[in-house]
Amino acid sequence: MKIVFMGTPDFAIPSLKAVYHSNHQLIGVVTTPDKERGRGQKVTFTPVKKFAVEHNIPVYQPEKLKDNSEFIEQLKNLQPDLFVVVAFRILPKEIFEIPKYGSFNLHASLLPKYRGAAPIQWALINGETETGLTTFRLAEQVDTGNIYLQLKVQIHPEDNFGTLHDRLSELGAEVVIKTIDLIESGNYQLLPQDDSLASPAPKITKEICMIEWNKPAEEIHNLVRGLSPYPAAFFIHNKKVIKVYRTEIVKDMHLKLSEFHQTKKELIVGCGKDAIKILEIQLEGKKRMSTEEFLRGYSFIKGSDEK
């Protein structure tokens, strides 16, 4: 099948590699425009473009997707059989209906659960023990299309956003290839999503990342997992932002709300229920480090936590 792949970040790379190395024909890659980043305003490519350039695959980088007749014409001229979409922008109907077999998206949840921009983070933040991957035929409403395939994936207690993201990214490549082969065979039945079971996974904002010590330790622990290593949960102490990357729940310690218990090696904070031991931490402007290393040069006892 003649395939155009659409994606942007690292999450899309295993799927793109899998399509490239498959027996299907990868005729083009669509990704977001180059950006100027850093102090020198150096122009950087998306990970997807980097792979495409290295492998001599034609790259398309439209500034906008809606009402872009030139881009639509370019896509039609390719005469694609299928668009494969992994971590890209929202496609308008006039684009996703171009290919002979339409377009499908790989989503990092068991739809209809966790529709939206941040399904991996929210599954962890909500303390789920299972998530998964879904391929679905694109429809006008985001993440609502009929389902081709689903794969259940266990969430381990030690997982954070980084580890779960990487695992789902690798497994996603297998689901993408199985979906392409399924569509080519014509031997499949699309499964409609049950909207009554839908839950949201909105974009992560700075407000979501703020630790509120009045919440139970388990909730704070899961927030840290869901936001580590990026963008990271944080609290404010002496007007400085302190990011937290790894924690443990402490059940047998009775501390007042937001009270700090500090030894040479340990930092434990009182929560709405139980307490949290902070294991990895980063002070604004400094590098990430173990709590033991951090406490050699910082004390929480004199100051108090500010909201």
TrEMBL record:
Give all residue intervals belonging to the Formyl transferase C-terminal domain: 203-298
Q: Which UniProt keywords apply?
A: Protein biosynthesis, Transferase
Q: Which domain of life is it from?
A: Bacteria
Residue ranges of domain Formyl transferase N-terminal in the record: 1-179
Q: Which GO cellular component terms are attached?
A: cytosol
The signal peptide stretch is none
KW NADP (keyword) present: no
Q: What is its EC number?
A: 2.1.2.9
Q: Which family does it belong to?
A: Belongs to the Fmt family.
Q: Supply the HAMAP family for this chain.
A: Formyl_trans
Q: What's the protein called, per UniProt?
A: Methionyl-tRNA formyltransferase
Q: Which gene codes for it?
A: fmt
